[in-house]
Amino acid sequence: MAKQRQIDKAAQLLFNSAENKETAPPIREFIGDSDVNAAYKVQEINIKKRIASGEKVIGKKIGLTSFAVMEQLGVDQPDYGILFDSMEVKEGKLRFSELMQPKAEAEIAFVMGQDLVGDFNITDLIEAIDYATVSIEVVGSRVADWNIRITDTIADNASASHFILGESEVSLDDLDLVNCTMTLTKNGEIASEGSGKGCMDNPLNAVLWLAQKMEGQGSPIQKGDILLSGALGPMVPISQGDVFIANIEGLGSVELEIL
Questions:
Q1: How many CA atoms lie within 13 A of 99 on its CB side?
Q2: What count of Cα atoms within 13 Å lies in the side-chain half-sphere of residue 144?
Q3: pLDDT beneath 70: ranges in the chain
Q4: What is the pLDDT of residues 206-249, one digit of tens each?
Q5: Do the Cβ atoms of 182 and 246 come closer than 8 Å?
Q6: Tell me, what DSSP letter sits at residue 223?
Q7: Ramachandran category for residue 77: left, alpha or beta (phi over 0 → left; psi -120 to 50 → alpha)
Q8: Pairwise CA distance, residues 160 & 68, whole Å
Q9: 223 contact partners, CB below 8 Å, separation of at least 6
Q10: Residue 217 phi/psi, 5° resolution?
């Protein structure tokens, strides 16, 4: 009972932070720095609130896909968060006033062509993916000063904020997901570089982890879901007036302007 009260308190703090655009103290102060299950319970409370308010779930994002970051946070697997329709940037412009401590990441997004249920492997996953495209994810933290450990970011919906997808719709048959190069420019200068290998050696490894995790929890990946597979290079801080362009080899580019 005491633990549930702490979970409820943590969830309310994060909810209020998002509503008021005021940062909260680290959530690990309430649920500890290693109780991943408690952190997902905090996340779930606020996800249910958003659904109840009319927001629609359109996919999921995967975080902590860099082995170096996993080691830094003392974990052996990535984490996930939920994507809502309110997070998708449609016209290439996003207001800075909507964001909290934002940073930009370039990554590969996958759109599902089939449900993934039951027992499946990476071959089944590849067959179930409709197409891939380039994306820019804007991550943000409700936790003050990005002072986070694993439970902080999970509770905070994997630090999800917004995202934009490119216009290309590329079959996996036409991509080298491991060796494809990525550049993210900020105001015309390269701010981040990487490759597909930077995401768990292959972005499909991250997506398979997510799909199996969701199936195990009784919330399988479904046709039409957008899956953000994780950053291919370092995050880049965002300021008002910035213009970002992400380019991923084989997938083209996408631009995001911060108003």
A1: 21
A2: 7
A3: 1-2, 72
A4: 999 999 999 999 999 999 999 999 999 999 999 999 999 999 99
A5: yes
A6: T
A7: beta
A8: 20
A9: 112, 113, 114, 115
A10: -95, 5
C-alpha dihedral (234, 160, 40, 202), degrees to nearest 10: -40
Question: Token match 């990476």: residue?
Answer: 122
- Yes or no: say if 244 and 186 are a contact pair by the CB < 8 Å rule: yes
Question: In this structure, what token pair is assigned to residue 154?
Answer: 């999970």
The pair phi, psi for residue 157, each rounded to 5°, is 55, 45
Torsion of CA 211, 212, 218, 220, to 10 degrees: 20
Nearest 5 degrees, angle CA 212-CA 176-CA 192?
90
**Helix or strand holding residue 225 (H, E):** none
Burial class (CB within 10 angstroms; exposed 0-12, middle 13-18, buried 19+) of 57: middle
Say how far apart CA 75 and CA 64 lie, in whole Å.
9
Nearest to 203 by CA among 149, 256, 125, 146: 125
Which residues make beta-bridge pairs with 155? none
Instruction: Give DSSP secondary structure letters for 41-101.
Output: HHHHHHHHHHHHTT--EEEEEEE--SHHHHHHHT-SS-EEEEEEGGGB-SSSEE-GGG-SS
In the chain, how many H helices and how many E strands? 7, 12
**Which among 217, 248, 233 is positioned nearest to 44, based on CA atoms?**
217
Look-up: residue for tokens 């999970």? Answer: 154
Is-contact 236 244, C-beta < 8 A? yes
Dihedral over Cα of 102, 214, 168, 231: its sign: positive
Tell me how far apart the alpha carbons of residues 102 and 81 are, in angstroms, rounded to a whole number.
16
Give the dihedral of Cα atoms 107, 113, 114, 115; nearest 10 deg. Answer: 40
